[in-house]
Design brief:
The structure is a single chain. The chain is an alpha+beta fold. It has a 4-stranded antiparallel sheet. A hairpin with a 3-residue loop joins strand 2 and strand 3. Helix 1 runs antiparallel to helix 2. The radius of gyration is 21 Å and the shape is elongated.
Length: 170
């Protein structure tokens, strides 16, 4: 059995994102898979109409593989969302995500340049947003997707204030 505590700092209680984010990920995931099926379905359609020939075994392999992959991908959505969390410490913000490849990012408040909130149409409809922390490093992936709007606004204000205090040397 895999232990999720393996990379988690001791004594950290994670604040999880809202469960409605699962709906967002299902909608975007299904949309993405429909586009994938449409694109990869063109050669199959050409084969079925006789314009192009593909061996039957290849057709079955492609269709079966895509259906299996899409099913597993969509089945893991709730667990992936529940693995996302954040924790505010005195000097930094911890952000956790991932099931198989787990990642914990610590973003020091003094390194933050600004905090951004965004929400697409689906997330706005569900009252959610994504909080993005911008640092000088382009490699920093410091986002908290699926936060409730009020919590996102609180995080933006709180983290921006902590960042300014650290930059000022307070």
């Amino acid at each position: 059995m895999l232990h999720s505590e393996a990379i988690d700092p001791a004594g950290v209680e994670w604040t999880r994102v809202d469960e409605k984010y699962i709906t967002v990920k299902f909608i975007t995931g299904i949309t993405g898979w429909l586009v994938t099926f449409a694109i990869l379905g063109v050669p199959l359609l050409l084969s079925w109409t006789g314009v192009w020939t593909l061996p039957l075994w290849l057709q079955v392999l492609v269709i079966g593989g895509l259906v299996l992959w899409a099913g597993v991908d969509l089945a893991l959505v709730p667990r992936r969302v529940r693995a996302i969390g954040y924790h505010e410490r005195a000097d930094d913000l911890l952000i956790r995500r991932g099931l198989l490849w787990q990642r914990v990012v610590a973003v020091p408040y003094g390194r933050m340049q600004y905090v951004d909130i965004e929400a697409g149409p689906i997330m706005r409809k569900l009252g959610l947003c994504t909080v993005q922390l911008k640092t000088a490093s382009a490699a920093t992936d410091a986002t908290i997707p699926g936060a409730v709007r009020a919590e996102g606004a609180r995080l933006r204000d709180e983290l921006a204030a902590r960042g300014q205090a650290r930059l000022a040397g307070l």
